[in-house]
Write a structure and sequence with these properties.
The protein is of the alpha/beta class. The chain contains five helices and six strands, in the order βββαβαβαβαα. The strands form two sheets. Strands 2-1-3 form a three-stranded antiparallel sheet, with no helix packed on it.
């Protein structure tokens, strides 16, 4: 990853008010009553394509040892409602990613969004929730206006919620610990995040 230097700056904190901060560049004078902290920062580019390729390669190698009919082989179920071109493209990309990794993909399409009823979608999600071959569920958004996205997303089993949009999962993202042994990621330090 390429690194580019970023201009350092000086952070001055006034003694009487520790919550009041002033940021000045080096050419400014500082008063004797203030504490000076010099911070040097660098910007780091993250090569997303390279990281994704590495992850897919590692997954493909690991999954190649599983029997083709094994229920332990990861399976992704995708629900696509309507005929938006951008949504169709996104879903095709997900299916290709599954194929490249040796994962199983299940696609349920409802091309005519106007004819789709909410209960039809809920029924399919309930089936996927109970299906041991399905390990992840992705509901492609947006849904038609007459469909409650909130109700559909809540119906997905939180353990199979690929996008993390179930309320239980969005809440856990910002909590310090939602499960025993859970570790909160330090989003301020990208080098500490285990991308793979």
């Amino acid at each position: 990853a390429a690194c580019a230097p970023v201009t350092s700056f000086v952070l001055h904190t006034s003694s009487p008010s520790p919550t009041h901060h002033h940021v000045h560049h080096h050419h400014h004078r500082t008063s004797p009553s203030r504490h000076t902290i010099t911070v040097n920062m660098t910007a780091q580019d993250i090569d997303g394509k390279s990281i994704a390729a590495t992850i897919r390669s590692e997954l493909a190698a690991e999954l190649s040892s599983l029997p083709s009919d094994s229920t332990s082989r990861p399976g992704l179920a995708v629900m696509l409602v309507g005929s938006r071109k951008d949504s169709q493209t996104y879903v095709r990309m997900k299916q290709k990613a599954c194929s490249d990794c040796g994962m199983v993909s299940f696609l349920q399409e409802y091309p005519n969004g106007e004819e789709v009823e909410e209960e039809m979608l809920l029924k399919k999600i309930r089936e996927w929730n109970e299906d041991e071959k399905v390990h992840g569920i992705l509901v492609q958004l947006p849904l038609p206006e007459k469909i409650s996205e909130e109700r559909i997303l809540k119906a997905v089993d939180p353990k199979k919620d690929v996008d993390g949009l179930h309320p239980a999962n969005t809440a856990s993202l910002f909590s310090t610990s939602t499960h025993a042994g859970a570790q909160k990621l330090n989003w301020k330090d990208f080098t500490a995040i285990p991308f793979h």
